[in-house]
Amino acid sequence: MSFQAKKRPAGDRLIIKGGKVVNDDQSFYADIYIEDGTIRQIGENLIVPPGVKTLDAYGQLVIPGGVDANTNLQAPQKGLSPCDDFYQGTRAALSGGTTTIIDHVLVDPGTSLLSAFDLWKEMAEQRACCDFSFHLDVTRWHEGLYEELETLVKDKGVNSFLFFMAYKDRYQSSDSQLYEAFGILRDLGAIAQVHAENGDIIDEEQKKLLSVGITGPEGHVLSHPEEVETEAVYRAITIAKQANCPLYVTKVMSKSAADVIAKARKKGVVVYGEPITASLATDGTHYWSKNWTMAAAFVMSPPLNPDPSTPQYLTSLLACGDLQVTSSAQASFSTAQKAVGKDDFTLIPEGTSGIEERLAVVWDRAVSTGKMDENEFVAVTSTNAAKLFNMYPRKGRIAVGSDADIVIWNPKETRTVSASTHNLTLEVNILEGLEFRGVPTVVISGGRVVLEDGHLNVSEGSGRFIPRKAFPDTVYKRIRARNKMAEARGVPRGNYDGPVHDVISMTKSVPPTPTTRGPTGSKTQTGPRNLHQSGFTLAGAQIDDHIPRRSAQRIVAPPGGRSNITSLS
Q1: pLDDT in tens, 246-299
Q2: Neighbours of 86 (CB within 10 A)
Q3: How far is CA 492 from CA 487, 489, 498, in A?
Q4: What's the gap between Cα 343 and its chain centre?
Q5: Nearest one of 108, 101, 158, 107 to 127, comparing CA atoms
Q6: What is the pLDDT at residue 566?
């Protein structure tokens, strides 16, 4: 597999001094020398060329740049494109410490996967400020997709594909389609992803709520109860287990759905769960806000859970490893765009922000509270995603030879979220007014300093496409082992030589089942029905033909004796 890599302008020569280097598995004090966008040296008393820029990291952490494995910066909804595209979205990502995104390519039903990929790649190369890769969202499954999937995996550097269990009559796949697709992805060495909700139930609930006059944003969460997410997660895991295909559940929003994933992992199922910025930081009580604009800003699928204890619960599962990756699911739609659904909640474009606040939310809610250490923080915000999607150790690690995507992180500084100061064009931020501990003071992307002293300095189109090979070891070592163990084996036994009961076939004597699709024969009836005609006949073979017949006998008197009636007059 070969890819044409986009050339990036030469990075700065940098040395980071005095910081504590934090990877997912260890922390240590060392200096880091960067040249041409790559980490060249790590250690003490480094010998570097003259004229190198020094970055002071004393008292701070030096961590790998964040990897956001779920963004939707270009995917349209209801015919509307996000107000924050590859430029604004990646600009905000960098300001929050994320240096690589994996964006979802939403393929219109009937559209070629390859053409959609090419279009997305072209747009990202022109606009993105940080490195990027892609998931392909399959909105209509059929056998003819195999060749395109194979090309994407082997030639285009895509190793993950998302399927929808919701959005009935638009994107929703059936269980049999998922099973077939998962088997193909397993053979190609790719990862199956699902948007897990029961689309049939949602569709019926939406109709019911609209029929009784509920049209506001609260109708969204009422039509997407927690159970439809939980049921779909369980069903997706069941299908993936039977197909022996690795599964990645996007946007885990409820306690019960997270529990299903945790229990499956304890049984050895190869499944991964992804809570997002919003589900870790806030809840779904805001859908009942009197302010329609604020309530609509929270509309996304699956919706935020109304239980206020959900964020803390999901954070705990993330901290203990039952959930593995945190992403943003960034999808910005302006208030005017959301207002398309002002009279019908089913028309509100779905999506929220979170790409800028993701690392700060995890640090504040998990590390500052003692649920997670600094190494686990790096794992869930960067390394785990890089390993799962086969970008490691190029991404997700500070090591010689890795890309120089690095964040100097101040764990003590705080920042308050506000739509007036965030780096998106979106007028509303669902985390408005919340204060989070943990702030990036310096961000290095591809060897270039893009954030320093609060000043963001990015270059439109400087991001590169990151191809990802199939069969990531972190995932497929287990799949291969399960393949060997799961081979079907018959039981060796002798031939049965005992008696076998005779079975009389009933198929010849059973009349055809009545049908509303029209007559089965060539005869057609015209005019009024003749009530003297009957379809009953004794012609042909009968079920009791094998029973010997008795000779005819004359009945002298009918049962009950002779009748005295001789006349009806």
Answers
A1: 999 999 999 999 999 999 999 999 999 999 999 999 999 999 999 999 999 999
A2: 26
A3: 15, 9, 18
A4: 29
A5: 101
A6: 46
